[in-house]
Amino acid sequence: MTALATQQLIDLSYIAAVIGFILALKWLSSPVTAMRGVLIGEIACGVAVLATLFDPQVTHYKWIIIGLIIGAAIGIPLGLVKMTAVPQRTAMSHAFGALSAALIGIGEYYVGTAHLTKFEMLEIGLEVIIGSLTFTGSLIAAGKLQEILPQHPITYKGQNVVSLSTLGAAVVIMLILMAHPEYTHLFQAMIVVALLFGVMLVTPIGGADMPTVISLLNSYAGFSAALLGFVLNSKVLVVAGALDGASGFILSVIMCKAMNRSFTNVLFGAFGQVQVSAGKVAEGRTVRSASPEEAAGILAAANKVVIVPGYGMAVAQAQHKVRELFDGLTKRGVDVKFGIHPVAGRMPGHMNVLLAEADIPYDKMLDMDEINGDFPQTDVALVIGANDVTNPAARTDHSSPIFGMPILEVDKARTVMVIKRSMGAGFAGIENPLYYLDKTLMLFGDAKNFAGAIVRELAGGHE
Amino acid sequence: MPADFISNLFVFILAAFLGLELIKRVSPLLHTPLMSLTNALDAIVLVAAIIIAGRHETKLSTVLGLIAVAASFSNMVGGFLITDRMLHMFRAAKAKK
């Protein structure tokens, strides 16, 4: 076969791959067809990779095979992590994606330095800057999620000025390189500065903002792949990068809306400052607490129960006990549903995956908009490890830092029960008036143990 | 501006809008698998990494290509694997008993 015909076949295989990518995303819209989406995605990637191996430019296979073996050795364990570790795994995969895009761009630069036009320098420069900052930013995010690094935001005075100047410096170096391509050593300086900026970008963000950050990094990783497509004039990369970038972008928008915050607000960390002023302590107010026995009695007498899980449930590894509670109540004819806030957990959809792992049917998991209308008809809203996303101050108190944030309106249920370790405040450090309502019962204890105790009471009462 | 850039931009804009429309329809239930699946699809940069590593031009470009092949292939394998595992867990209530 002539080289031209081979190239055309490879291009056709890339078109087939692109069709596969689009179908994969289309089928992911529902849990019923989602498995088919994964399969078509796998076929699409397989076809494109196999075809590339026949590219006439590929003359040596040794390093490719070694790379594939190393990749499989890293990728398979990362595909087998526990469901609670999915957020940090995802951050790591953003890091790897950005790393490979950046390295290919760097490789192109050093191979092509002699004959780069100004425009090509601009494309490579932008691609390498975004890839590099996404790489280090994602590593920091993964470190925070794995709790190797401190999770709380690290801020200092003048931080935004320093960070933005760093990004500016990377861009200026790129502009100098466009004008004076002979200063090749500046390219390395640009990479270092961009890597540094990635660290600065994510370090000040933490806690409740992790779902937004992880979505933003998703978006950057996608766009760096798309830019690489521009550099290499590869349409398959442009399409895959654009789809991934669009996905991360939409998730970021959803996360920001769910917290009633803007992108700039998340990026330039307003919560850090808010934390100090928000210490509106409720002096003299009392809470009512209840024992597992009392809680079990109220739950067993209910017709309709909505469980609101939060990150605290994942920390306490309570999802399997929650599932037993779900079973125990369902067996007694109680209608049990789960109400899930978009930013519950450490990444978009995190709670759903944990509950699904515990074998809770997905049609019992409702998102905020679906469940909020149900609370006035709900006998018991049981909050497990969630705090700020249930805070009625977001609806009523104009001075509250989370005012305007959409919440799960658990306070509209007839009875509210909150499993909580202590009266400590949530991520945002904000007092939750929900706990002082007359209809609220505080169930103090570890989520897993308390849920287990209720399950035992329910079983005991039945015999 | 080179002609290649314009045609790539054309493709990019179309794909981005298509992506926005498709992803808006993904149920919030599946946002975590969505992220791991798009990650795996994005690992298609592997095709570019293969060419860099297999072209064998300079020692530096081969080493960069090797690392890029490993990084992107690990994303592809790991991304599909974990998406598959997660989706297997999602089942409807009717399937019960």
Please describe what this structure looks like:
The complex is a heterodimer of chains A (463) and B (97). Chain A is of the alpha/beta class. Helices cover 60% and strands 7% of the residues of chain A. Chain A contains 18 helices and seven strands. Chain A has a seven-stranded parallel β-sheet. Chain B has a domain at 30-95. Chain B has helices spanning 3-24, 31-42, 46-55, 59-89. In chain B, α2 (31-42) packs antiparallel against α4 (59-89). The longest helix of chain B has 31 residues, at 59-89. The radius of gyration of chain B is 18 Å and the shape is flat. The chains are: A alpha/beta (463), B mainly alpha (97). At the A-B interface, α1, α2, α3, α4 and α8 of A face α1, α2, α3 and α4 of B.
Topology:
The complex is a heterodimer of chains A (463) and B (97).
Chain A lengths: L2 H25 L6 H20 L8 H18 L6 H27 L5 H28 L13 H21 L5 H18 L7 H23 L2 H24 L4 H5 L3 H7 L10 E2 L2 H10 L2 E6 L1 H5 L3 H13 L3 E6 L9 H8 L7 E3 H4 L8 E5 L8 H4 L18 E6 L19 E5 L2 H16 L1
Parallel strand pairs in A: 1-7, 2-3, 2-5, 3-4, 5-6, 6-7
Chain B lengths: L2 H22 L6 H12 L3 H10 L3 H31 L8
Helix pairs in contact in B: 2-4, 3-4
How would you concisely characterize the structure shown here?
The complex is a heterodimer of chains A (463) and B (97). With 463 residues, chain A is an alpha/beta fold. Chain A has 18 helices and 7 strands.
What are the defining features of this structure?
heterodimer, A: 463 residues, alpha/beta, Rossmann fold, seven-stranded parallel β-sheet, B: 97 residues, mainly alpha, 4 helices, flat
Percentage of residues in helical conformation of chain A:
55-70%
**Radius of gyration based on Cα positions of chain B:** 18 Å
- Which structural class matches the secondary elements of chain B? mainly alpha
- Please give the alpha-carbon distance between the first and last residues of chain A: 78 Å
> SS-based structural class of chain A?
alpha/beta
Range of strand content of chain A = 5-15%
What coarse outline of chain A follows from CA principal-axis ratios? elongated
Task: Write down the overall geometry of chain B.
Answer: flat
* Number of distinct helices of chain A: 18
Give the uncertain stretches of chain A in residue-range form: 270-282
Total discrete domains of chain A: 3
Q: What is the residue-averaged pLDDT of chain B?
A: 92
Tell me about the largest β-sheet of chain A. Answer: 7 strands, parallel
The count of helical stretches of chain B stands at 4
The topology string of helices and strands of chain A comes to HHHHHHHHHHHEHEHHEHEHEHEEH
Order of helices and strands of chain B: HHHH
- Rg over CA atoms of chain A: 26 Å
